[in-house]
Structure formats: structure tokens, C-alpha cells
Amino acid sequence: MPHHGNEAGSNFHASGDTLNVRAPAPKLEAARRQSLVRRFRSSLLLQNVAALYWIQLATYALPIVTIPYLTRVLGRTAWGLLVFAQVFGFYLAFLVEYGFGLSGTRELARRRDDPSARTELLTDVTWTRVLLSLVVLVIALATRRYVDKLSSNADLFWAMTIFAIAQGNSMSWFFQGVERMKLIAAIEVGTRVVANVTIFWVVHRPSDAWAVLALQAGGAAAGSLIGFLLAAKGTPLGRPRPARIKRMLVCGSGAFVQRGLTSLQASQTILIVGLLLPAATVGIYEAADSLTKTVVLCFITPVMQAVYPRLSYLLAHDETGAPKLAKRTVLVGVAIAAAWTFITLTAADVLTRIVFGSGFVAAAGLARVLSLSLPLGAASALAMMWFLASRAERFVNNVLTFSSLAMAVLAIGAARLGGPAAVAWSVVLVQVATGGLLWARVRQPARSDIKSLDVHLGKHR
Fold first, then answer.
1. Per-residue model confidence as pLDDT tens digits over 25-72
2. Domain count of the fold of the chain
3. Which of these, 62, 191, 253, 371, is most buried using a 10 Å CB contact count?
4. Is residue 10 exposed (0-12), middle (13-18) or buried (19+ Cβ within 10 Å)?
5. Nearest to 80 by CA among 361, 261, 262, 282
6. Same domain assignment for residues 296 and 234
């Protein structure tokens, strides 16, 4: 009599002359993991998302590693001065960048298979940024005398100016456009890691605040230079032509205004608080702002940056694929933002003490208020990505102009009458209004087919 054993626990069984082998569970799991690895390696989009995550982590999350050290070494006043200079520097950097992260990436993504088009775009963007760097230098020198926090700190001023020019000349736009982000990500992450690690050896007292920006400027400059050399190696740089530079300024103006308004809206409250309130208050408000917005900058922005060139390509070549990609991106972005809102609401006190120290406990309440704007803010940013990929810059710029003006009016009044808490609530109110305008427009064409969407967007181009 044959012995059947325990069939449920057996890895094989006999049926006539056929032997059926069941793969053990560990082997099945290993096969699934290998399948996922193969899918990742074969997906250029996923690889670009991962690369952009590393860049965002190096740009925004890596400095957070130094924050517990800096807030304790510098104190609230010096920390507030550093934060104000960083925000001012980022505004100047956006002037140098001129929105080419949107317009340049979009045009390169559409014509990336044409070598002459790549050379033309690289040449025009590079020389336009050289001109803009000179303009930024003049602006910085002209405004210094009117800003007390900069006029009395020469070292901090020059570190901020160099940082702005170096950051604005990042070559990420080029590698995003050709969807080759892994190499530039490694370079930019490496240079930023070195810069931030060096902070622990250089900065020891409040008077060293300028050195933080100087080191970050050095890291950004190294990354931009290496990126440019790599891009120019495969795409030769041509001579500057004034007519083409003028054309780039005109053609990129829509994306520049959009990018500028977005950056202004993102950080204008810190700038307003810095202009109207003491430096120590700036440090408190920035701590709350960083605690809430880091998740957006580190986890949602890389997805947008990686999806944007692909979405631009699909809108030109695949009308059905573009909406599907956009919807999946919105779901992911909103889910991440909602999760961080919940974490902030429940653990702001603990997070504030760990990251910033006991001297910044007042930031916990502000962080809870600001976190309420995150889910709608993420949805709004992703809606803007759709309109921009569809060349609807005018509509997006109108919405951002409204929100920036509303934010400026509300924040200035709130800072004078109610302090930083009132400013935080004004951020939430403006975000609700902005999100409502964007998503009301998004939903209108959703009732019909994709062709009606193109017609609708065409009215705003």
C-alpha cells in the first residue's frame, strides 16, 4: 500500500506517471522580489523618481540632519538670521533658474531625440542663465542696504549671493528632459552630503551662521559645474546669440512667472515674518514651516518632477495615457500629504523637541495649523502640473497671482495684528481658496472626453 503522507505540507505529489513539483514558499517570495527588481530596472520612470527622491532628500531632508545641531549651537536669533538669508537666497536662485526646470524640461522632453535641438536648448539656457546671474548680483547689491538683517552681516550676504547663483544654475532640468537622472542625482547628492557633513566641523558658535550658507553654496556650485560638464560632453555648447537669449526670456516667461509665484507662495510668509518680526520669531516660524513642508518637498516634489516630462510626452503622443498617469500621481501625492498631516497633529510636540530642541517648543502649535493645508496643497500642486504640461501657463499664473497677492495681504495684516499664529491660519485659508479654484477648473472637462479637455485648455494658452 503506498504511503501518501501529509499532502498539505508536502512540496510535491505524484499523479500517475507525472511528478508535479510545488515551489517552496521562500522560493516563491524570492521570485516575486526578483520580478519587482526587474520591473524597476526596466522602468525608466521609476528610476527617475528614485533619482529625484535622492536629490530632494539631499536638498531638503539632509539639512534637517544638521538642524538639531545648528539650532542648539546658533540659538534662535542666529538661526532666524540664517533662515531669512536662505529664503532670500532661494528667491534670487529662482530668478537665475527662470523656470527652465519647467519650460526647458518640457521642450527637451518633446524633442529629446533630435541632437541639434538638444544642443540648441543647452546653449540657449546656459547663456541666458549667465546673463541672469549677473542680474541677480546687481539686485542683491542694490537691495542689501534696505534689509537690516543683511546689511549688518556682510559674510552672510555674500554667502547668500553665491548660494543663489550656484543653486539657480543646477543642470537637473537637462537630465530630467532626457530622463537620465541617475548620474546627476549621484553627483548632486554627493556634493550636498559633503557640504552638510562639513558643517559639524566648521560651525561652533552663533557668529558662524554665514559658514552654513557658504558650505551649501560650495556644494551647489560643485554639483552644477559637474552636471554642466557632463551635459556639454554629449551635447556641445554653442556661442551666445543675443537674439536667441531674448527668445528664451520671452518663451520661458510663462514658466518663470509660474515658478516664481509658486516659490513666492511657498516661502513668502517666512520672508514677511522676517521683515516685520524679530529674528528669534523667524526661527520659531521656520521650524514649524520646515516640520510640515519637508514631506512635500522630499516625497511629493520628486514624483512631480519625474512625472512631468513623461506627462508632457504623453499629452503629445498618447491622449489616453496622460490622464491615467495624472490620476495615479494625484492619489499618491494626496495620500502622502494626509499621512504627514496626521503625524504632525498627533506628535508635533515630540517632533519639535527632537528636531529643534526645547527652545523651539512654541513651533509645535504652529506646525499643527500649517499641516492642515498639506493634502489640499499637494492636490493643487499636482493639478498645476497637469495644466503646465498642457501648456496652460496663463491659467496657472492667474491662479498663483491671486493666491500670492491674497497671501501677502493676509500675512502682513496677520503678522502685525496676531503674530505668527495668525500668519499660519492665513496660509490655510489661502490654500483652501487656491485649491478650490484649481480643482473647479479641473473637474469641468472631466464630464466629457479628453478632446474637450484639450479644447478647454487651449482657451487658456
1. 555 555 555 554 455 444 556 665 666 556 666 566 666 678 889 988
2. 2
3. 371
4. exposed
5. 282
6. no
